[in-house]
Amino acid sequence: MMKFFRDNMTLDIKNEKKFGCYGNFFMRDTQVRHDKLYVGESAGFQDMLWGFGMRYAILSGYLAAQSFIHGADYDRLWKRELKPILETSLINRCLFEKGGHAGYRYVAKKLAQGDPCGFLRRHYNYSFFKHLLLPVAKRKYKSRVKDKSCSHEDCSCVWCRCGAAQACP
Predict the structure, then answer these.
(1) Residues 6+ apart with CB under 8 A from 83
(2) 39 and 45 in contact (C-beta within 8 Å)?
(3) Which residues pair with 36 in a beta bridge?
């Protein structure tokens, strides 16, 4: 990307700092640990195909608030509202990767045809036949989180490992 911008634009970048880390998609059976309710990306609530997560962060925060206000079971709430969408995104990722370049061209063409929201809505709605692929997708994408009770103290989860690597000179 930097080569493209240097070749095609006049850039004067000062104090360039390289950064990066790895992403990790996961779904735990519970998002309540040590009396903490996990929401957003810390709960693994992000789209597993595109990586977006703001909608899931807001919705899971709302569900956590509803859990506190009404004494509702947070795990039951997020599983009802978010789990089907997250599972579908995992299946979509598996299908997208399996499609290779042809799949990428198909998606790009469909998105450019004028109704990207409709196209995406159809592919993110629950489908019985698509969900038959869920066990295959789950096997293909196993979590790299080692410490499922991440407390950010001597933790080996992907974010803590990445953050420690970033802090080192």
Answers:
(1) 27
(2) yes
(3) 33
CA atoms within 13 A on the CB side of 150: 19
Structural domain count, the chain: 1
- Kindly state whether residue 33 falls inside one of the protein's structural domains: yes
Q: Is residue 164 domain-resident?
A: no
For residue 37, what are the β-bridge partners?
A: 32
Q: How far is CA 146 from CA 78, 114, 137, in A?
A: 23, 43, 20
pTM of the shown model: 0.71
Alpha helices by DSSP H, listed for the chain, are: 2-8, 54-70, 74-81, 83-112, 116-124, 128-131, 134-140, 158-167
CB count within 10 Å of CB 54 equals 11
- Note the pLDDT tens digit of each residue in 48-103: 888 888 999 999 999 999 999 999 999 999 999 999 999 999 999 999 999 999 98
Whether the Cβ atoms of residue 157 and residue 146 lie closer than 8 Å to each other: yes
Domain annotation covers residue 150: no
Q: How far apart are the first and last CA of the chain?
A: 24
